[in-house]
Amino acid sequence: MRPRLQETTIELVIVFAIGSLIGTLVALTANAYVGGVQWFTALREGTQVFAVTLGDTTYSLTSVFFLWAAAALVILIRRSFGITRWAGPADSIFAAQQHKEPLNVKLGLGSTLAAFTSAAGGGSVGQYGPLVHFGATLGVALRRFVPCRLTPDIYLGCGVAAAISAGFNAPLAGIIFAHEAMLRHFSVRAIAPISVASVAASTISSVLFPSSQTFLIDVPAPGLITLVPVLIITAPLIALAAIAYMVTLRKTQQFAAKTGWSAERLILTAATVCGGVGIVLPEILGLGIGTMNGILDARYALGMLIILLVMKIAMTGLCIGFGLFGGIFSPALFVGVATGAVIGQLALIVGLPDLSAALSVAAMAAVAAAVIGAPIASVLIVLELTQSYAYAVGALIAVMAVMLLTHRLFGHSYFDRQLLDRGIDLAQGREALALSQHTVAEHVSGDAIRLTAVTHGDAALAAMKQAQQTEAYVVDETGELLAKVSVHHAIEAGNTPCLLVADKEPLTLTETDSLADAMHRLSAFVGESIPILAPESRRLIGVITEGDLFQAVLSVQSAIRQEERS
To answer: Quick one: what percent of the chain has pLDDT higher than 90?
Structure first.
């Protein structure tokens, strides 16, 4: 009993130490990131460069010059870090589901730096996605220097939870987000360090950065008896906005790939167009926090709200699709807030009471949940931001109704769709993913009976009897497979070459085939063993028996289940 108590105490100390360390580091970095973006935003908004007056209106080219500078730095970062594809939350989710392909720390740091540059320059991108990926990257990197019994995905989850907690000052949402969107399972071993990291990040942010609150929601929530029916009726409109946003992101990336332009040309094009639009519509530049707070305060008319909604979707799609990298979570919040405000204005027109603030908050949570695939975390963010039960219930209704529609019409989330475009289907579960990453090469046996083209049946039968096997393989002088010989073939051949009666087209696998592919191909197999060939030829590497294959599959499945339950 005493050794067990001592071991438990040590593990508890490690959990608190690791969680607190990750939470503190991520909180400091996240607040520095946000503070830096805000400083550059204030500098851009307070700078007038090449002002042009047309009629009674003065236009400044500041946005174009800032975005050109940001584009140049993004190109420099891309070259310096050797980046060919930016990394984001989708990569964090994939890394959390398996251990074969860990996060690339260098790529994660370079992508975070590029996202900061884009947002600071005024790109229509977000901050929370890059912060989430940075938190995951920091957690994985820290494990190299502070190793313990915690698995890599728990370190990753600690960083993700801390990023959400610090970004929104919402520790409960951070904990749920890490499990709901990243790990996608709950375990006793993971919940403790992730909770510590999330609470530590929130505490550090509250103590050292007390004025870092993102959204200012002071309007009292309306009665649920009025709000809930409106949310249910207008859920398709909110879902339409979310789908339009996600489809725009995908289509612009596909269009950029088809242009054949260089990465540099694409990035500069995005900066020029976005900066040009920002001259006449500065509200769509950058993170849009000030604009969102203005919408929540009902400072914009219906026509302007529709323009902001459409242009924010278009400019975010352009920036992300053309490589002016950044997050998509903040723009999703903008799309939700604007959509809710539009619905609120329409409700006023038909004679309903003013529901704009509540509808904006609910739509914000719904669009965000559809994009990131974390409905419970999105509702908790609203609850912790507003400290209002009514706002949270309204968000819950909107989230569930909208996600039901977006899940059927688009997918579980934008990040899942990104991975699906790369051939990674998380809907099949962690076991299927693990089986697709383990190859048959790890389980090949080299004790196959090899025969020559002139080996007689009697000799083959004797070799099988000595090896206590019922199958053998005919190979040529280079080791390439010619045929498979069963004990029945050997008996039939007698004193003639086995090759005459052998199976010349047996079922084969290559050493690069996954266990998942092997199980699928062996669904109708009858026999003792399957020959394993080299990928580029028919050279016989070895064999794998049915029993060994099933044991390998069961071993992988058991490891995944144990990890999820521990």
So the answer is: 47
Can you list the domains of the chain with their CATH numbers?
A: 2-208 (1.10.3080.10), 224-422 (1.10.3080.10), 434-565 (3.10.580.10)
175's tokens = 């904990």
Phi, psi torsion values for 58, nearest 5 degrees? -110, 130
pLDDT digits (tens, 9 = 90+) for 105-149: 999 999 999 999 999 999 999 888 899 999 999 998 888 887 777
303, two tokens: 């026509």
Q: Is 478 left (phi over 0), alpha (psi -120 to 50) or beta?
A: alpha
Query: What is d(CA 321, CA 319) in angstroms, rounded to the nearest whole number?
Result: 6
Contacts of 404 (CB under 8 A, 6+ apart): none
- pLDDT mean over 434-460: 87
Between 515 and 563, the more confident residue is 515
More confident position, 48 or 538: 538
| Contacts by 145-153, CB closer than 8 A, 24 or more apart | 146/18, 146/21, 148/14, 148/18, 149/11, 149/14, 150/14, 150/15, 150/18, 150/189, 150/193, 151/99, 151/563, 152/95, 152/99, 152/102, 153/95, 153/96, 153/97, 153/99, 153/182, 153/183, 153/190
**DSSP assignment, residue 230?**
H
Indicate the SS3 state at residue 531: strand
Q: What residue type is assigned to position 104 of the chain?
A: N
Tell me what the mean pLDDT of segment 529-534 comes to: 89
Residue 75 is predicted with a pLDDT of 95
Residue 158 CA to residue 174 CA, distance in Å, equals 9
What are the CA-CA distances from residue 328 to residues 98, 245, 367, 514 (Å)? Answer: 24, 10, 11, 34
168 contacts 214 by C-beta, under 8 angstroms: yes
The answer to whether 116 touches 33, Cβ cutoff 8 Å, is: yes
Q: Residue 201: what pLDDT?
A: 93
Q: What are phi and psi of 255, to 5 degrees?
A: -65, -45
Look at 92 and 11; give whichever has higher pLDDT.
92
Structure tokens belonging to residue 187 = 């375990």
Q: What percent of the chain has a predicted confidence (pLDDT) above 70?
A: 95
Sign of torsion over alpha carbons 325, 327, 330, 336: positive
56: confidence class by pLDDT, cuts 50, 70, 90: low
Q: How far is the C-alpha of 384 from the C-alpha of 409, rounded, in Å?
A: 30
